[in-house]
Amino acid sequence: MRAPILAFWLSLAAATALAAAPATSANPSMAVPKPAAHKPETVKSAEPKTAKPKAGPFYATDPADIIALFASMGAKASTDHVEDGMVFLNVEVPGQNFNVQMIGCDLKGKACHAMAVYTVFDKSGVTLAQINDFNRSQFACRGLLTPDGHPSV
Prior knowledge:
Blueprint: H1 2-20, H2 63-72, E1 76-83, E2 86-93, E3 96-103, E4 114-118, H3 128-137, E5 144-145, E6 151-152
Antiparallel strand pairs: 1-2, 2-3, 3-4, 5-6
């Protein structure tokens, strides 16, 4: 059950980040359209309210915007540490935690070039053959064994 929940959060985060990322194409016909203005709710909902998105543009290259994106979806994200042009985030969602590694960031920890999402499972005994079988069946998700023998996806 944990894998589908994690997959849902990751796909939702990726789709939202890609949809909200500013257009970088010099061709105006390839520009990403601006989302429609948000209309306030008129009907009160019984569901708890999540954090309000920040005003202004969203940059998928900025760890602070990624943290705000997760917060708007009800997740708790925080910076773990920054090291050698990388920013590491911890993300807590109901029933699962995972990590985000922002790669190729500038000296201020912004303008990152890539993002890797991963989690380590507290399960020993997974073999290299099992990891290889998993990798052969996955297109966009890869697994590995950590130095202490735990699977990471």
